[in-house]
Structures are given as structure tokens and as C-alpha cells.
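Budget justification, computational time. The allocation requested in the original proposal was used primarily to generate C-alpha cells for proteins on the priority list. As evidence of use, we reproduce two of the resulting records. The first is shown immediately below.
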Amino acid sequence: MKELTTLIILFIAFANFSQNIPKKRYITNRINESDISIDGKLDEPIWKSAQWENNFTQYEPSEGEPPTQQTEFAIVYDQDNLYVAIKALDRGKDSISTRLTRRDDTDGDMVGIYLDTYNDKRTSFNFIVSAAGVKSDALVSNDGDNEDFSWDAIWWAKTSINKDGWIAEMRIPLTQLRFESNENQLWGMQVLRYIFRKEELSAWQPMKRENSGWVSKYGQISGIQNIQPQKTLAIMPYVVARTDNYEKDQDNPFLASGKNNDLNVGFDAKVGLTNYLTLDVTVNPDFGQVEADPSEVNLSTYETFFPEKRPFFVEGKNILTYKLMFGDGNLAYDGLFYSRRIGRKPHYYPDLDDDEYAKVPENTKIIGAAKITGKTKTGWSIGVLESMTAKEYASISAVENSRKEMVEPFTNYFVGRLQKDFNKGNTLLGGMVTAVNRNLEEDQLDYLHKAAYSGGIDFVHQWNDKKWELTISSYFSHVTGSEEAITNTQESYLRLFQRPDANYLKLDSSKTSLTGQGGKVVLGKLKGNLKFMGALAWKSPGLELNDVGYMQTADDIFQVIWVGYRFYKPFWFFREVNLNFNQWLDWDFGGNLKEAGGNINWYAQLKNYWRTYGSINLNGNQLLNSELRGGPSLIIPGYKNYFLGFETNQQKKFTFDFSTGHYFSNEKGFRNIQRYNFGLGFRPMKTLNISLSPGVNIYKNDLQYVTQEDYKNETRYVFAHIDRKTLNMSLRVEYNITPDLSLQYWGQPFIASGEYSEYKFITNSKADNLNDRYQMYLPNQVSYNASSEVYSIDDNGDRANDYSFDKPDFNIKEFLSNMVLRWEYRPGSTFFLVCSQNIRHSVSDGSFELNRDLEQLFEEKPYNVFLLKFSYRFGR
């Protein structure tokens, strides 16, 4: 840490103070009675008398230079609406890109207005429209660090192309904005224009890319007088009709018919509680139109993170975010709130006799959920979420009787987030609390936590025009439950209190609660071409957040230094270049160094609009505390790996990208990983986009965990060599008929195989020499029964079966597809037609043969779902 402190002092001592850019101000005019028709033509008299503004400046690529094409805009307002007209002048009219896409996925030429109506220099309402008339809107917070495109405002926009370029005309109802009830309004404002063929972004208010912050650098709009905040009040009932078709199974009463029909109703509501706070409610929500998660086979001790896709939980998620770590990689997933916990797959699966069949719900039903989000005029950001999920039962049928068994208890989830801005938005103090309470009525669910609570406070301070930033946070967790539940928590892969070599941990099977804590300290320079950050984060062994949060590890102390240099202006054959250096150390709370490493990575865009990126990583030996699943820690050799990729000019009809990564162990032959990912894109017309993304992973590892078995009062930790191959290929077709009517298809075949060989057991997991950490089984010690698919081990050579385990080889095939017709027939009202399919096949065969595997997969009977969803928005 001494070297980090010295480095920081040197940078502070030689830091240059940049000059602030003067802020522009646009003065708008009020119109008494609006006769403006939003048609993209600007032929109303009011636009001729409005104040037009131009003089834009390039932001990218040639910062500070005049744009290649100039832009003009005018803004007027009345008692209920803000009207915006933008003229995107263009001498190359035939080169204007009018690519049709779905809302919030805009492509081609674009213009947008960005409004900081709170005037807090941190929050912004963004309204963007493409030359094709596709709308995109976003709610920005934390001075541009968080951008939430799930926020869908109710507003109107039309575009047209003429001899001078193209025109965008917007009407933004004041109900969609949040502002104080003042006689004279003063808002932050920015107007941007993007020219697709040149990848050029120009701004009305000049900005410097080397500066930190975004909203705080906006210009201003004034002249808005005597308007009143208007509260949103809308209700959106919906009805869903669904049919499931699948293979008949006459022996299974739940599959005997081969089909199932269902009708579901519910509603969403949006209510403006005050000028600043909005209440969102959903009752009996249905998310059948949401695309499925991609297939995977996870052999590690770490839980896979899947992003949230359900609209209710996606919208406003930024204000309910509390990050435990830093950066934008895998570390950024850890947080106090992970909304995928709500409505998850039931925890329990019933034990069945040989003659029994079970029907278990795929997901836990959400009875209802409500959230309050917003920001007050005094700088308080508020986020509150309350949700209830239902009891879920498995229906179990046998020849003689039928029964039901609870697989998920009634559960209440609560999340609260509060933040306060000080010092003109340069200082932020906040906190968050979460609570999960389960009604554990039946004994088989006693292994779950009865209650789980967490909370934290965070502090952020920026100074010297946001050049420097200090972040400090601290959080805790407290879970309660039966002795079984808390013992399971102590023994879980995140903690492993039972590890025999962890003298700093103690397993207590009599405990009925467990408490943990964590935190982080981050200091960084965020402004200028040269940026850097030093950080330290920790999570105590007793920390448990996964009832409603997401946490990949506990018992962890992680240190990192990051230094980056940015070339913002074009030079040589580059448009821009980013270079980064990272160094990290990782310990457990026993003071054991788990990992030490570093990398260099880069990103560059060339002047021909191609992009290239890559990284080189070096890591020393790794101490894996969870690899033996409760046994002692295991040392594995360090490694070197590199990652390289490029993508072609995305403006073209045909596009191609490729990336590859290779992992090399420092011990020859111990572990080797190869990854190859391709991307093919074809846009034959502005309304149609086709992309194909195949990927191949080849993984070989000499120490893959298999099982652990008791042998003469000892535990045998059985490992093997694994030869693993994975193939996935995503096909995506997007046909956008109009800006509000689209047809999308996504399909993914997935094949994963794993073949085990060279079985061995761990002898001294931390021996200096790799070969001394395990002992190979001799050929005469291992026998295999092909009919039962079981390996038997003669450990001491007496020709007796000392222990056995199932054959671990696998070959899993899956095909997922989803086709969605979406029509927003009026703002806020939608119609969905969804057709989805799932085909799955698996065998205990570790070989990989593409033709055979695909043939076996598509010989299986698919599970098909057909769904119609209709919603209608009442209100404003």
C-alpha cells in the first residue's frame, strides 16, 4: 500500500488544472394554444417565429472542431407540453442512414435532447429519435454513470427527409418530467446529433471527453415560466392466453394429454405520488414475452449471473443498485439487490418413490410488487421495492394416491435505497436496506433462512471539478433460521467453515443466526488523458447476501490498482485508443494469498471504422479454498492467457467480428483453454437485420473435481482429467415493419460434452510439487460397470469395492428459440404474439460428434409455447 500512496501523491502533485468551458443558455418561448401537429414537417407558423440555435461542436471524433454537418434546433412550450424541433442539415441527403429498429435500440442517424429538470447536475431525462423515426428514451443518474433505457416515457416524435437534410419533431408531455414548482424554471440541457456514416457526435454545449461527469457539463434552458408539475396517473390491465404443447407420456399423468391451456389476467399501474416520486405497481405479472436465458453447463462452485429482463424490475433498477465491488467486469455483478431472486425457481424438489411423478412450477408466482422511485427537490433520491411471492406446491401422483408438497414458502421481499446530494452534486451520502421473510410452514423447507437482512451505507466525494473521487462503503448481513439452515450456510461453497486447514474459521452447528460484513475504499483520478484508481474491498467469512442479493465470494480481501490512458483525438490511422493496466492481489481472512496477477488490455478504433481489442494476463499460483468442496485448500499452477478480437465497419451491409482467447498453465499440460467466437451480420435492407454468432470452447484440465467418498475414516477427494467441448450458435433476425411494429426471432443450439479420464485422489493439496498433490489410481484399482454406469474403486488392492461413484461424463444438447411479434399500437399499449420452443437431450457420454449430436437433439419432441398478451394503457 506504500507504493500506491506514493503513486497517488505524485499524480496529485503534477496534475494540471483544466479550464472550464463556458455554459450556453437557450431561452425558450411560451405558446398559448398549441396547434402543432407532430408530423416532422415544421410547417406551423410558430416554428418560423421560434428562436433557432445552431453552432454545434464535435464531441467525437475531433473534439472541439466544427461538425461536418451543422444542426439547428428550436424549443417552445405550453401549459402541458414541451415541443422540440431539430433540423439535421446534411449536404449528403442520400447518405442519411434510416435503419429501422425496435424502441431503445436505435441505429443510424440520430438526434436527441437531454434535460436535467431537477437541475441537480446528476440526473437527466433523455429523448432520442433516429432518422427512421425510432424513439429511444433513458433516465440518467449519478452524473452519467448510470443510464436506464428501460424507462419508457409517453411522448411523440416524427421525422422526415427533405432537400436540406432531415427533421425531427417531438412533443414531450410535462407529466413525463420531474421539476420544482417555481415561477421561473432553470434546467440543464444538452442537444446532440449523431451522423452514422462518419460515427460523428456533435453537441450544442461543447464538452471535453477527458472530463469526468456528463450531466454536470450540460448547458442551460430558461424562459419556462408558470408551469405546474403534473403527476402521472395510468393503469395498464393485461390479459394473457397461453398454450403449451409437448410430448405425451401415458405413464406420467401430468404429461398424458400433451398440452395445457392457461388464461391469466393482471395489471400494472403508474401513479405520481408527488411532483418527484412515482409509484409503480404490478399485480399477478406475466413475463412470458421475455427471452429465455442462454444455455450453460456450470461445473464450478460459483453461481452464474443472469441479467434481469423482466420490464417491471428492469425499469428504475439504477436507483435500487448498491454495488459491492468496482469496475465493469464480473466484479460489478455483486450487489445487495439482485431482482432475479424474486420469482425464482422453487428452492425445493420433492423426494419421489419409483412409482411417483411430480409437477413442479417452473417459477414462483409473484402475487404483486410495488416500488416508489424518484428524487426530491432537496436532493434525496428514493427507491423502495416491496414484493410478495406465493406458496408453491408440487403435485405428486402415484398409482394409489396423489398428494401435494410445498416447494416454496410464502415470501416477502423489501428493498429500500436512500441517497442525498450535497455540495452541488459533488458529495453523495446514501444507504440501503433489504429484508427477506419466509413463512416456513413445512419441515422440508427448514433448510432455508427464515429471515435475511442486509444493509449498507456509501459515501462518494468528488473535487477539483470532479477530477478526483473517493468512495467508501460498508455493509452487513444477518440471516436467521433453524440449526440446519445456518449450518448449511456455514458449509456452503461461499464460506466452507468446515475446511480442516482454516484455523481462523469455526463451524458451529448449534447456531441459529449468522452475521457478516464487508466494504470498500476506492480513490481515483477520473479526469484527463491519464486516469487511475486504487481500491480495496473485503467480505467477511460470515457474509451472506444471496437471499435477495448477489455475491460470488465471501472470506475475501481484494486489492487492485488500475491505470488507464486515453487518446481521445485521431492520430496516425487511429480514431481513438484506450490503454489499461491492472494489478491485483487477493487474500482470505486467514491472511493466505489466494491470487496475484495483472494484465494489460486495450481498445482501438481505426479510421476505417474497424475496431480491435485485446488483453494479456499473467497470474501466479492460485489457492482455491472451495475446489475440494469442504476439504482443504488446493494450490493450482499459475497461468498466462491472452484475448484478441476485432470487428469490421458496422455501417456496412455485411459485418464480421472475431475473438479468441487462449489459456496456458505454467505447468505444461495441466490446463489448456481455447475460445473462438465469430459474428456474422447482414442487413439487406433498412428494415431487416440478421446476425449469426457461433462460438466454440475447448477446455482441458488435469484436476477436475468429481466427488468425495468416505474411506477408512478419511475423505477421498476424487478428481480426474476432463476433456470438455462446448458449441453454441445464436441466430437473431429482426424485422422492423414500422417504428412501433416489429418481429424478432432468436434461436440457439447448444452442445456441451465432458469426458473424464485419469482418475486420481488428492493426497497433499498444498505440496510444493504439483505431482505430489495427488495420486493416480492404477488401472487395476478402477472398474466400470457399463449397465449401471458406475465406477468402483479398489483403494487398497484387496480386490474389494471400497467406494463407488456414478459415471460423470456428460453430453447435453439444447435448442432454445423465441419469436416475438410486438406492436405498440398506441403509446404505452402493446400487443405480443410469442412462439417459443425448447428441445433438450442428454446422455452420460462424454464424446463430441457434431452431426450425431444435432441429429439426436432434433429427434426429440419439442416443448412449444404459444402466447398472446394484450395490454391497454388508461391515463396519462
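The second record produced under the same allocation is shown here.
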Amino acid sequence: MANDSTPAADSQTPDTAPIIVGVGASTGGFDAFQRLIEQFPAGSPLAIAFVLHLLPSHESMLAELLSRASPMNAVDAYDGQSLEAGCIYVIPPDVYMEYRDGKIKLFPRAGELGAFLPIDRFFMSLAREAGERAIGVVLSGMGSDGAIGLRQIKEAGGVTFCQSPESAEQDEMPRAAMATGDADFVLSPADIGKTLLDLAQHPYVAKAPDKLESAKLRPSEEDFYQIFAMLRTSSGVDFSHYKRPTLQRRLLRRMALHKITNVAEYIRLLESRPQEANELYRDILINVTFFFREPLSFTALTEKAFPRLFDQRKPEEPLRIWAPGCSTGEEPYSLAISLAEFMARQSLEVPVQIFATDVSENAIETARAGLYSDAAVRPLSPERLRRFFTPVDGKYRINKKIREMCVFARHDLARDPPFSRCDLVVCRNVLIYLDQMLQKRLLTAFHYALKPNGFLMLGSAETVGMQGDMFAIVDKKHRLYSKRAGAARPLDYGFADSGEGLRPALLGPKPPREHVIHRTVQQEVNQLILSKYAPPGVLVNDKLEIVQFRGQTGYFLEPPPGEVNLHVLKMVRAGLLHDLRDALDEARKSHAAVRKEDLHVAFNGHGREVNLEVIPILAPDEAIHFLILFEDLSADAEHRLAPLPRRQPKKPDAPGEEETETEQLRRELETTRKYLQAAIQDLEVNNEELQSANEEVISSNEELQSTNEELDTAKEELQSTNEELNTLNAELHSRNEELSRVNSDLVNLLSSVQIAVVMVDRALCIRRFTPAAEKLFNLIPTDVGRPIQHLKPNIVYPELERRLHQVIDEVQPLEEEIQDAQGSWFLLRIRPYCSVDNRIEGAVVALLDIDAIKRRPSS
């Protein structure tokens, strides 16, 4: 997930602003902080903000004590104070402190509900403002303050530390920070100080412009491709369509952690240490999210999308939601909680399926478990925490009803087919990491995945961009869109697997720039020669429409009056029409060049002698084209513009001879007229036949195209269905494994406990019993499912059935001392059987042997 806030402009330039280190501590943190700052010299480039949990009414003397322990200057922070390198700024009591515009801002704590978490608040402000120059350190303390803020610092590109638990007086805060998985270093306070000084010298943290622009520090495209190849080998994910600036920041951050200032050296590290490729992969896919992030977006869904999705929905028709890029599950669970609350208010009973996917397998495993730390559930209201979570060993687990709404699976958006028939797609803060090509493909996939009345929600920094014709705006502020009908695009699966992203690794390096320039000059020379010495001509397609003019063709072609028409036979001048038509027909039939010589064309009352050549052009996967060349036979310009010779009529020698010549011309004219009429009739017949055949072909082509589209749609639906089945299968497999482990644990627990225990349901039928209960209750394995009242136990307690009903109905445990048939004493305990959903589904009977205690003589 991304950080949605835009850093404000700092009052200091990047190369002069100090490196801000936020240090959070609580109980035992003051001593740890002293050991940390002992490592810093007086001229340290760091500005340290020390955020400590202080008593509201206690006057702080920390600044004075720290000044004595360190050569750095320590002062109490005040509102509007600028941060300078080499200084320590201590938070005053009973306030929140933030970093804004290069200055400290203080806010009163009074009147605020909930826990006081000044470390998280300062770390979050530091992440927004300082970005890559932010450093967060969590020291000794109780609680989990600082854990969420540390995650945001890492997401913004900063560096994170926490004190090693064994060196901390109170290890709760360091362990909470470690549990997020976002602590780059886990060290003792002294080692943290030394590492901070080393980091301050690295160009990534120091932001030294001259060093950042170094060719050795800036990765080239070839460097990126090598790294992409190694990441793809280790993780199976192709990052070639991720935005380069984001990848570069993550890469430089990993180099800073290893104190490397040379990209080539870091590539060698990746080759020698496969684990580093996994760490870089985790950094690129950093999972920064929390419950109900941007709560107003969930309000927009509840008010504008949910009512329309449930309108006229049948009770048996499931509501399908896809949440790609779900990270560790907080977002899909937040969607499920919002839906559960909405359906409860509207008294709706509709099955809900939320398909939550992510490319990170580790994130999916965390989401599938549904177990979150105290810091993770902090954004939730007490009401939601009580209603939808169950405390488990100091953590909180999503209750069964919400977990059953969500199905988690690994899914690569760039490669795997999308889900289908979804009512809502929620993909927030994912597209901002991807280039335009992949964004366009994913938006097309989301459009395909949605039903005609479906909704799409994006992150606050994302839009549908060029795909606006596919989605209509519902809520511009919260990036909520609805699907437009009739704007479908063909889906393109698997271009990330085509090897495009790994081009240099497969095809070798790009040619040097000098070769590219040389080839461009050659092209310019060729163009110049063609324009001066090559004959003019045109390139026409199979429909005889001109697609390209080559040279000056005005002497041979002219546009016809009326609408624009580029048909070559409509544009050719009269003297060339018949010969050009014949040449084109012959070239089409023979697929060979056809030449016509000694032709005469008129232009503005002048004549030109022309040779004509038609050359068919055959290219793979394309229709036939024809190159028509006009060869001008005129010797020079004067000759080309010479007037056409006027025909001098021959004087007849005698009247009879004149009549004979006139009659001959009349016969020739009549013959020509008949010939032309017959040719026109034949042409019309041929045209009608061709037109009829063309219409049949067009109709057949439309039918084939329709069939092809139906097959494509069926294929896409099958791919989507297959992906959905794979997802469900993975979820069921995971749940089966979990149930198997739980069942094994339960069997071993019951076998090892030497206490007679019998579990019954509300009808008093036996659910399970321990081996120790077999003798006392006369049980055998086949008794599971039998009513307990049908048994003849070896204990003397006729009230057992009534007492069981009493405990189930009144939900109150019961204890009594009873004896068995041999007179041995037992303590009978009957407790309600409570399910994980806090429902009473029976009772648990336990018998503890107290015979030795009862028979012990009283003193």
C-alpha cells in the first residue's frame, strides 16, 4: 500500500536540511537513549526528536540531563521550532508533537479519547514530511506505541530501528515493532547509534546531489533488467512494468542498508546472497495498511454503493467482491465489517464472498490467519473491537462470521486472469506503483470482472485515466466509479510472461547510441536520393485506395470534385485511366509486375510521355498492396511543358473521298460505342455478382466474428472460473490443514489429561470424551452421538440429566461432590460449552478424583 499524503515543501533545501531521527521510548527508554546518543559527536548531521511517555503533571528535566550525557545540544521542544543538525529535541509533557514544514508543531492532549500514543503520531508526521530522510527508532517501553508509525516510515522509504528485546528493560514496545516485520535493524542502543552515523554518510539518506547523480549510484535500464531477472527467478514476479522511480527508491534504500554506493556491487550482492533478493522483493511489495484506512471511503461505499448493490437482490444471490492487493488482510476485513454492519441495519441476509488477493504469499498467510496485534487493531472503535474480534494470547482474532466472508489467495495481477461476475472491485493504492501500460490492462480486467451494475473503488491518488469511457464517476473525491455498459475491451493475458521485461537478458544489450545515430543519417541520405532521382508513385491497398504518396505526382493524379476520395482510379488523369486499370487487374491475377509504355497524359493543355509500372507488394499477415510508378519520358522542363501538337486535318482530294473517310470514321465510332456498351454491361454484371458475393462474405465474416467473440468470452469465463476455483481450493486446503492441526492438538490434549471429561451438546448427546472418562461413565468409542441418559455410569448421581439442562439453560457452572459405585469421592464440575461465536451449544462434565483428600484425617 502507498502513502497517500503529499510531502509539504521543506523550508530547507534537500542538501542542507538535517536528517530527522525520531526516537520513541517509554519505561526504561531514557537509559537506552543515553547509550544511543553517546555514540554521536558534536557535529552530528542528525536532528533527533526524542518522544517519551511522560507524566502529564511532571515537569521534565530530560533536556538538562541529556545535555550532560552527550556533546549534542538538548532542548525542550516548543511550537514552531525549526530542527537543526546536531540537536536533540525533547517532547514536553502532556502534548502531541508533529513534524511539519521543517518545524515542530505541538498539540494539546486534553479532551482526546482513547490511548495516548505520541510516538505513533510523531512517526506518521515524520513519514509524511521527511520521506526517505526519515529514520524511526523504537526503544524500551511498555505497550505498542510506535509500531504503526514505524511501518509508515518504512513505506515512505525511510529506515527503521528497534532495540533488541534482550537489551531492553521493557521489551513490549520493541517486540511490537518487530512483530510488524518492518524493522530494518534490531540492535542494542550503542549499535543503533553507530549504524545511524554510518547511514548519515550514505547519499540516499544524506541526499547529496552530486553523489546521487553518480552513474554508479543511479541504476541504468540494463541494471534494472538484471535485477528484474533475479527477482523473477526468486519470486516468480516480473517487475518490468512497475514504475522506475519507485523501484529506484527501494533499490537505493537496500543499498543504503548495506552501505553500498555502487549499483554493480549491489547486483553482485544479489547474485551471491539469494536472501537479499527476497528482502528486496519484500521492500518493493511493502505491506503498509491498516483497518479502515481512509474511513470516509468506507462511508462513501456504505452510502452510495451498498444500497444499489442490495437493491432487488435475491436472498440466495451472493454479493461478490474482489479486493486485489489486499496485503495482510486489513482492507478486505474492513469491507466485511462494513457490509456486516450495513446488512444488520437493513435486516438483510445475503451471502457475501470477498475474494482477497495479493502477490505476496507471506501477506496472504497473515491475512488468512486473521490474527492481529494490539497495534494493528488500534484504529478500530471499542464497539467494533468487541463485536468483531476475540482476544487470543495478547492478540485479536477476527471472528468466524467475518473470516468466512473472505477468501484469500495469491494472485499476480500482471499475469493471472481476473475474477468475474463481481459486484464491487476495491483496488486502492496499487495502480500508483505500475506503469501506464499495466494500469490500462488492469482497468480493462476490472471492467471485465464487474457485472453491468458493478462498482470500482481506487485509491485517493489514482484515477481511471484514459479508460474513462469504461467507467462513470459516482464519487470523484473518494474515487468511486460505476461500470459503463458497452465499453468492453479484449483481455490480454500473460504479456508479463512473454519475456518482454527481460529483453536484455534474452536478446543481449541494446546497440550503442553511435550506431543508432549512424543509421538515422543513412536514412536521411536514402530519403534525399529517393526524392531527387526515384520516379514518383503511389502505394495503394487491396481496395485501390492510396495509402502513401511518393514524390511529385501532380502531373499524373488529381483529386476529383466532391467528397474526398483517394481511390486511385478516381484520381488518375484521363490518358492513363484505361492502361492503369488493365495493369492493376493483370498484376492482381499474376502477382507479378506489369509495365505499360509510351502512354500520353494531358496536363493544363500540355502533354507528357509516360511509362507506367504496377508492382504487387506481398507482406506476411497483410493484404496485398500495389506500388504504382510513373516514369516521365520528357527530356527537359521545356519539353515537358510544350503544347500538345494540334492535329491538322488532311484536305480531301475529292468530295467522294471526303465522304468515304467520314463514313469510315462513323463506322469506327459506332463499333467503339457498341464495344464500350458491352464492356459496361459486362462490368455491371460482374460488379453485381461481386457485390452479392461480398455481402455473403461479409455476413459469413460477421457470423464467424460473433462466434469467435463468444468463444473468447467463454474462454475468459473459464479462465476466471478456474482462477476462482483455485482460490477456493487453496483456502479450503489451508483450512483443512488448520483443522487437522487443531484436531491433533485436541486429541493429544485430551489423551494427556488424566481427568474424566465428557462433552455433550444441547440434546445431551455425547460429543467427545477423554480416556479417563471411559471407566467412570462406561463409555466405548461408538458411544459418541448417544444421549448420556442412555448410559449406566459408575457414579451415583441420578440428578445428572437435570443438572446438565440447568447449566445449559442458566449458563451458570455447577460443582458438587459425588461418589462412584465403589464409594470413591469425586468433584463433579459442569460448565457451559461455549462456541467461538460465544453461543451455548452444550455442556462439559469433568470429574476430579478427591478421594484421598476426603479420606485424609482432619488435623
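A brief technical remark on that second record: The longest helix spans residues 655-752.
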